[in-house]
Design goal:
This protein is an alpha/beta fold. The chain is globular, with a radius of gyration of 18 Å. It has a single domain, classed as Rossmann fold, CATH 3.40.50.720. The strands form two sheets. Strands 3-2-1-4-5-6-9 form a seven-stranded parallel sheet, sandwiched between helices. It has a two-stranded parallel sheet with strand order 7-8. It contains ten helices and nine strands.
Length: 263
């Protein structure tokens, strides 16, 4: 996808990877970028910083009616949506001890929000014969987020859903990409480190931390090439191959890393 003159929506657009995507899409010549986020003031601040092509919107991505309204309002304002980025995401920082409410929130933000977006935006895209969905899924969706069971499970589900969409709709003009970064210097990582979450510590120990702007650059390149898996950290592809070829050895390596960080 060439982003020039495109109409783009970014959820979770008020910070981290989302705000970097919004800024980069505008810099690439998008005609409009809708910065959608649960935090209204933050969405307005990002949109104001981008300039006239940006429009803020307040949305809770776990509420299907609000997602439908976001899509309908954008289509009324601009006539169409060319690229919808389902980017909002949450972590828990824990394992099976995490309560049901946190598991449910992770499921609703990391998976169902993507389902709600697809339900809302696909009819218009299909009627026009084209469109692109970009789902931020994380490297946890193709590997494992050590220390965060709910994040691992929901991000695997997010990648699976994106793949299903791609298989089902590509021949009808719909392109789907799963953006799967590993360590990114965002408030999510900083908060995890401050809380002592094991997953954040594993990421920090890897030393491969990208900026959100670097992730946005990789996303633009992947969209241009219409790639399904967009891997800002190229080593993730090698890790995924190793995991597939030798799952026992892969798990043994991660257990060794965990022991080193926790003893």
């Amino acid at each position: 996808m060439n982003l020039t003159d495109r109409i783009v929506v970014v959820t979770g657009g008020a910070g981290g990877i989302g705000s970097a995507l919004a800024r980069r899409f505008a810099a690439e010549g998008a005609a409009a970028v809708v910065v959608a986020d649960l935090e209204a003031d933050a969405a307005h601040a990002v949109a104001d910083g981008i300039g006239p092509v940006a429009h803020p919107a307040t949305v809770d991505v776990t509420d299907e009616d609000q997602v439908r309204s976001l899509v309908a309002d954008t289509e009324r304002r601009y006539g169409r949506i060319d690229l919808f980025c389902a980017n909002a995401g949450v972590t828990t920082g824990g394992g099976i001890e995490v309560d049901d409410a946190a598991w449910d929130r992770a499921w609703r933000v990391n998976v169902l929000a993507h389902v709600y977006a697809a339900r809302a935006v696909l009819p218009g895209m299909l009627a026009r014969g084209g469109g692109h969905l970009l789902h931020t899924c994380s490297a946890a969706g193709v590997l494992t987020a050590v220390g965060d069971a709910a994040y691992t499970a929901t991000k695997h589900a997010a990648v699976g859903f994106a793949e299903w969409l791609s298989i089902t709709y590509r021949d009808r003009g719909i392109r789907v990409s799963a953006l799967c970064p590993q360590g990114v210097d965002t408030p999510m990582l900083a908060d995890g480190l401050a809380a002592g979450h094991l997953g954040a510590r594993v990421i920090a120990a890897s030393g491969a931390i990208l900026t959100a702007d670097q992730v946005a650059e990789a996303a633009v390149a992947g969209l241009a090439e219409e790639r399904f898996l967009i891997l800002p950290h190229p080593e993730v592809a090698a890790y995924a191959r190793r995991r597939a070829e030798d799952p026992d050895g892969w798990q043994a390596g991660l257990r060794k890393l965990v022991r080193r960080l926790t003893t």
